[in-house]
Amino acid sequence: MLIPFSTKNCFQLLCNLKVPAAGFKNTVKSGLILQSISNDVYQNLAVEDWIHDHMNLEGKPVLFLWRNSPSVVIGRHQNPWQECNLNLMREQGIKLARRRSGGGTVYHDMGNINLTFFTTKKKYDRMENLKLVVRALNAVQPQLDVQPTKRFDLLLDGQFKISGTASKIGRTTAYHHCTLLCSTDRTFLSSLLKSPYQGIRSNATASIPALVKNLLEKDPTLTCEVLMNAIAAEYAAYHQIDNHISLINPTDETLFPGINSKAKELKTWEWIYGKTPKFSINTSFNVLYEQSHLEIKVFIDIKNGRIEICNIEAPDHWLPMEICDKLNSSFIGSKFCPIETSMLINILHRTCPEDDEVHSKWNILCEKIKGIM
Amino acid sequence: MAAVRVMRTWSQNAGRLICVRYFQTCNNVHVLKPKYVCFFGYPSFKYSHPHQLLKTSAALHGQIVQFKLSDIGEGIREVTVKEWYVKEGDTVSQFDSICEVQSDKASVTITSRYDGVIKKLYYNLDDIAYVGKPLVDIETEALKDSEEDVVETPAVPHDEHTHQEIKGQKTLATPAVRRLAMENNIKLSEVVGSGKDGRILKEDILNYLEKQTGAILPPSPKAEIMPPPPTPKDRTTPIPISKPLVFTGKDRTEPIKGFHKTMVKTMSAALKIPHFGYCDEVDLTELVKLREELKPIAFARGVKLSFMPFFLKAASLGLLQFPILNASVDESCQNITYKASHNIGIAMDTEQGLLVPNVKNVQICSVFEIASELNRLQKLGSLGQLGTTDLTGGTFTLSNIGSIGGTYAKPIILPPEVAIGAVGSIKALPRFNEKGEVYKARIMNVSWSADHRIIDGATMSRFSNLWKSYLENPAFMLLDLK
């Protein structure tokens, strides 16, 4: 049962978690089940950061339930160009977020439930958490065949992935979060998580694609609400705490002092793109010139999201070498981002007086290069 | 007064430092049997006057400690190093993040156990690191007190050298907790520890203080509420200062990168153009009325109608009379090209910075067409999807700084153009009409800048007057509309 708590109650609950009574060992079990009222992926990720950094979870584990509006979330050490179709995401207005835990790329929408299990570092146990989820699912639908795998995925009927896992371990606390596919748009998911970018060489963690299915497709009674309540109930039973879900507002600075700046940091270009491990692109594209196709080779090294080395090689008769060199050197240091590239070309037009033909070739080159960003 | 002599030995089995302490009084210098053997986990406790202690102890200087990768849990034996937060030579404090490692979908932040200077990193990025093997070498400061046995004196003022001792009783507490206790003049013997083995935790100190003062303490430094940044309104109201404020801010230098670097390039090129300015006031009362009538009609067609389409169209009509303002000069100013198309750029303030897309061929567009094109450009601009064609080929620019605020401006010409205009915000002001009566006029100021090498003040003035007349009497615009 969803029983919304007043803000004051919730604050006291959180206060109690932060400052336990001194000098007496707590034998009373306690814990918290929180659910976010926000669907903003950055705000919700900020809640995870906040709980991880500020709450004392000794003897008091926390379960956090959240859902997001359409977003793609990549793991801490991943390369977004390798993992998803950024052009499609820009067109469709799908947000990109980088979380602090490891693991692979996932697509979130309102048909996907996110569960985060917060514990102390000592009590960190992913398999235990997944078994809890399985018990919850079976409590609703005993015939459901869901099993955790060695890679901490949950498989439906032995072949369809319905949940992926990632975790973050700090000095004293840890969290394990996983997704649960309820009624997500699967076709959209597969088109978004397919990268069209060629020639990327990188040491970033690569995602392992899997066949997915929605629980709702298996059994129409398994809606998001039903599942969230079932998991909350199982968590409460397991930890012997009250089955109350407290609704929280991730923008409330009185409950979570400093959380809005955490959410802001997660939205910055430096975090989302700049944290990509060093990688290089080695590709080529064709331009039409006098009824023939000319091949233009591109070698770009990118570090911290910015172009470190840029070698665009175009045939000399199409674009003179000095002009190509000028283009190459202007790119160094700028972000590997189509917007910055547009602006850069704009500036070059203004500050480098060339004839219209050269300008139009620059434009063609620019559009092609933006296509790979 | 008891002085403390400390001897430390390495215990190979435990892999930790075992501290054996001897007590020694001033008068009889006899070595007592080692009273306490304690395990040395946190050597980095800072006293207010560290030197006093060190003089009497057989302390070692700059010990290089091998910081091993500690157990991560779940039987994980190896991890991949993904990011270093420190490099050799950096100074770290206890609990600072050292690196980020990844193992099987778990991202782990490794924090330092000691204060000191990083001497050696054992792994490069993407190397496999092993649990139990050295991760970094840290040169710690001369070894300080251990976890146990702090000498206690009656609570003394903060700035005196304090030392806490519990005779015949062990108090377990980390150096951070001890420091907190000392800062608050708390005797550790009076605090009951709630941690493992009766260890005193920070929460215990906080609770103790709470009981003493009867108030809830502010949360730990990390969770302290940051004062929200003052809104512009706040800055205008003067705040009475009661005591001298200490400013602890520091300067910050960072290289100019990316977009800002390109701004530097453009503006440096623009600087070569000798600018002259010309400003005027435009009475938009009639235009405001007209727009109110036309707004719903445009909206019905799916287009948001602002004032800009009128400004652009009026400018284009003006450029037909004064084509030199729509020209371009080469770098050496030898040749002037009179551009046929009026591609009027509009300065746009986006998240990424200043972008100037342009509306092509304003001379053949209707006001409505200009409006819908502006809508399209604004939408693309906000999504960060403006194409190269939209951003290049401009011949004249209008900047609506009034949308943000302001009245007068001195806009900088964007090469290879030769003129630019900036319109301020529309304000309601009293003006006199022909009959000498005061009426409520909608006034907007325009500031023009032009390249004085080819454009003279008279031309600019006449162009501005024409532009102004079209806007002040929209019916007049109808007469010359193409």
Automatic annotation (TrEMBL), chain A:
Pfam families: LplA-B_cat (PF21948). Its main location: mitochondrion. One of its GO terms (molecular function) is N-acyltransferase activity. CDD domains: LplA (cd16443). It catalyses: N(6)-[(R)-lipoyl]-L-lysyl-[glycine-cleavage complex H protein] + L-lysyl-[lipoyl-carrier protein] = L-lysyl-[glycine-cleavage complex H protein] + N(6)-[(R)-lipoyl]-L-lysyl-[lipoyl-carrier protein]; (R)-lipoyl-5'-AMP + L-lysyl-[lipoyl-carrier protein] = N(6)-[(R)-lipoyl]-L-lysyl-[lipoyl-carrier protein] + AMP + 2 H(+). Residues 57-243 form the BPL/LPL catalytic domain. It is found in: Mitochondrion. Keywords: Acyltransferase, Mitochondrion, Transferase, Transit peptide. One of its GO terms (cellular component) is mitochondrion. It is an enzyme of class 2 (transferase). PROSITE patterns: BPL_LPL_CATALYTIC (PS51733). Belongs to the LplA family. Lipoyl amidotransferase that catalyzes the transfer of lipoyl moieties from lipoyl-protein H of the glycine cleavage system (lipoyl-GCSH) to E2 subunits of the pyruvate dehydrogenase complex (PDCE2). Unable to catalyze the transfer of octanoyl from octanoyl-GCSH to PDCE2. In vitro, it is also able to catalyze the transfer of the lipoyl group from lipoyl-AMP to the specific lysine residue of lipoyl domains of lipoate-dependent enzymes but this reaction may not be physiologically relevant. This is Lipoyl amidotransferase LIPT1, mitochondrial.
UniProtKB/TrEMBL annotation, chain B:
Its EC number is 2.3.1.-. Residues 157-168 have a biased composition (Basic and acidic residues). It is found in: Mitochondrion matrix. One of its GO terms (cellular component) is cytosol. One of its GO terms (biological process) is branched-chain alpha-keto acid decarboxylation to branched-chain acyl-CoA. CDD domains: lipoyl_domain. The keyword Transmembrane does not apply. PROSITE patterns: BIOTINYL_LIPOYL (PS50968), LIPOYL (PS00189), PSBD (PS51826). Residues 172-209 form the Peripheral subunit-binding (PSBD) domain. Its cofactor is (R)-lipoate. Keywords: Acetylation, Acyltransferase, Lipoyl, Mitochondrion, Phosphoprotein, Transferase, Transit peptide. Residues 218-231 have a biased composition (Pro residues). Residues 146-171, 217-244 are annotated as: Disordered. It is an enzyme of class 2 (transferase). SUPFAM superfamilies: CoA-dependent acyltransferases (SSF52777), Peripheral subunit-binding domain of 2-oxo acid dehydrogenase complex (SSF47005), Single hybrid motif (SSF51230). Residues 64-139 form the Lipoyl-binding domain. Belongs to the 2-oxoacid dehydrogenase family. This is Dihydrolipoamide acetyltransferase component of pyruvate dehydrogenase complex. It comes from Equus asinus.
